[in-house]
Design goal:
This protein is mostly helical and 77 residues long. It has one domain. It has five helices and no strands. Helix 4 crosses helix 5. The longest helix has 11 residues. The model has no long low-confidence stretch (mean pLDDT 86). The structure holds zinc ion. Zinc ion (ZN) binds next to loops. This is Reverse transcriptase zinc-binding domain-containing protein.
Length: 77
């Protein structure tokens, strides 16, 4: 992954996804950080990585508008 010709910030983002260390509200709560336990985009009761990338209606709309909706479904499995 580090050999990919993509911006360093994107490499770090992908690395965080692969290691499941994105600071979602669920992860912050596990670390005792005071945050509202809801998705800031749709107000769902939990913001997990699965919700952030696949289940959130905002994410679904982004996948649909990108033309990569099938890729999103494939990656979610
Ligand atoms: Zn959401």
């Amino acid at each position: 992954m580090w050999a990919l010709q993509i911006p360093p910030k994107l490499k770090l983002f992908v690395w965080q996804i692969l290691h499941r260390i994105l600071p979602t509200t669920e992860a912050l709560i596990e670390k005792w950080v005071l945050v509202l336990p809801r998705c800031p985009m749709c107000c769902a009761e939990s913001e997990t990585m699965e919700h952030l990338f696949w289940e959130c209606p905002v994410a679904a709309a982004l996948w649909a508008s990108s033309g990569l909706e099938h890729l999103g479904h494939d990656l979610s499995r």
